[in-house]
Write a structure and sequence with these properties.
The protein is of the alpha/beta class. About 30% of the residues lie in helices and about 30% in strands. It has helices at about 65-80, 115-120, 130-150; strands at about 1-5, 10, 25-35, 40-45, 50-60, 90-95, 100-105, 150-155, 160. The strands form 3 sheets. Strands 3-4-5-7-6 form a 5-stranded antiparallel beta sheet, with helices on one face. It has a two-stranded parallel ribbon with strand order 1-8. The longest helix has 20 residues, at about 130-150.
């Protein structure tokens, strides 16, 4: 199985213990985290439990039928994976108002590895060696977990390695 959207996490997963969201009205949008051709990711507050999550809005009307099916398959796959070094899936729903597939995952409160590298470069410093080894350890264990499930990550890059102070 080829997958492009799995993101590695350096944090322990949390669980949602309330009713699943039914629309974007169940969330307060706090910040835009990133944007691509077919989707945007936001930092959101889930009103039911007052927790912070990442919410990816996939613009389905702009996708072909095959791309829509791939997006749904990816959600099913992500929902089936539980690993401490892979961003944890929380829930997904279709928002009728925006015609978007919304995927809710854990939020990485320390950004991503690309941001950490850029920050170190601008400060003319280095990422501490202990942190580098911790990141490599987490990435390799997350990648091994995917490979053990016969899932191939197709988009390995620093921007897909999320960092968190949690755990």
């Amino acid at each position: 199985i080829l997958v492009s959207q799995f993101l590695f996490s350096m944090s322990k997963a949390r669980n949602i213990n309330c009713e699943p969201a039914k629309s974007l009205n169940d969330f307060k949008q706090l910040a835009l985290l990133g944007e691509g051709a077919y989707s945007a990711v936001y930092k959101v507050l889930r009103l039911a439990d007052r927790e912070i999550y990442a919410l990816k809005k996939v613009k389905l009307p702009s996708l072909s039928d095959k791309e829509k099916q791939n997006a749904l398959n990816e959600v099913r796959l992500l929902a089936s994976i539980r690993h401490e070094f892979i961003v944890s899936y929380k829930e997904a729903f279709f928002d009728d108002k925006t015609r978007c597939l919304c995927i809710v995952t854990e939020y990485a409160d320390s950004g991503d590895l690309f941001q950490a590298i850029t920050k170190a470069q601008k400060a003319k410093t280095h990422i501490p060696e202990n942190d580098v080894w911790r990141y490599i350890y987490g990435m390799l264990h997350g990648l091994k977990a995917l490979h053990d499930m016969r899932i191939l990550h197709r988009d390995l890059k620093c921007a897909n390695v999320f960092l968190s102070m949690i755990g």
